[in-house]
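Hi P.,

Sorry for the delay on this. The queue was packed all week, but I finally got your sequence through. Input first:
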Amino acid sequence: MGTELADELRRLEDEGSTGVLHTGDGAFHLADGAIASAECRRTTGLDRLAAAAGVADAEDWQRAAEGDPDPVLRRPLLETLALLSAFDAAYFLLSAPAVPEFRPAPPHWLAPVCRIRPRVLVRECARRGAPDSGPWPAQLVDRAPVVPVRRVRRSRVVLTGGQAEVLAAADTRRSVTVIARDLGRTAYGCLEAVRDLTAAGLIQPPGDRRPPAAPRPGAEPVLRRRVRQPVPVPDDGDWEPVDQALLLRLRSALEELA
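Then the structure:
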């Protein structure tokens, strides 16, 4: 994780700053120290997520960006999508070292519905595990094509709906980033699906064109999720208090999406 960026986000939170923190290939928009929006060129933009969910079309989004956000801000699912988009962008921005640069600016128009404490965001990105671990590190999300295996050496494979959707979109040409945008899904969610599909022998590791090894005779051919490593406890033994209100809003909104 980019410690310099994480430290800068915490500093801006403590100072209650309002403006834009540019870093790498994206930026964080802060309002009174809270993150109102985050964007990264490797992830699916909030406008695309909103369009795929039927929350706002291109014309609605254009009006909001030009100074008339009220109609979009009243959409019930916008807060959920804004939170998902911000956490998605943050995971990839924090995964690479970069020199952040803060510039004061007026609050982002999403500030009324999206306010994430930087410490909560940094801790969640750490909980998701090391971004450079496994055959699909985060740095390859927009650099390597997703290539399905030519022959599946299993009689039965159980996939989630999201995994099946990503597998169907894998065409030997598109990267995780492009697949996520085409499907209107988060880049992190698609990356996790690709990691799991690779572990199951359905997607080739990046740069590997050899067929996967056959499973052991009698092995159960069910795709299982990888186990994430626990997040280390801070040296002083103290955790920042959990933002219960944020978690409850996320859970309620995700139940509406289900």
